[in-house]
Design brief:
By secondary structure, the chain is an all-alpha fold. The chain has helices at 4-19, 47-52, 58-68, 74-81, 94-97. The protein has a domain at 27-84. The chain is built from 5 helices and no strands. It starts with a helix and ends with a helix.
C-alpha cells in the first residue's frame, strides 16, 4: 500500500506546475522596425529570433519573451499577459462597480 503522504505531495506539486504557463505566443504587435542594434522596436526580438520563431521550441520562445518583456513596447505585455506590466486589468469603470 502506498504511503498517503506521497499522494498528498504529488497533488501539491501539480497546481504549481500548471500555474507556470509558458509565454510562447508571438510577441509581435505590428511595430516592425529594426533599430541600430538589429532589434525590433516593438517586441525587442533580434532579426535572427524573428526569422527562426516558428522553428523554436515553446521553452525557447518563453525564454526570449521573458528576457525581452521588460524592455518591449507596453502593447507586448497586453499581447502576452492580458494587461500592461505590473498592472492588473481595470474593472470596467461604472459598469464594473455595479456588479
Amino acid at each position: 500500500m502506498k504511503d498517503r503522504r506521497d499522494n498528498d505531495a504529488n497533488r501539491q506539486q501539480e497546481p504549481a506546475a500548471a500555474s507556470d504557463s509558458l509565454l510562447s505566443r508571438s510577441p509581435c504587435v505590428g511595430i516592425c522596425t529594426l533599430d541600430a542594434d538589429d532589434q525590433c522596436v516593438g517586441c525587442r526580438r533580434t532579426r535572427a529570433e524573428i526569422a527562426g520563431w516558428s522553428s523554436f521550441s515553446p521553452e525557447t520562445r518563453d525564454a526570449i519573451n521573458r528576457r525581452n518583456l521588460p524592455h518591449a513596447h507596453p502593447a507586448v505585455s497586453v499581447q502576452l499577459l492580458g494587461h500592461a506590466n505590473g498592472r492588473q486589468p481595470r474593472r470596467g469603470g461604472r459598469n464594473g462597480r455595479r456588479r
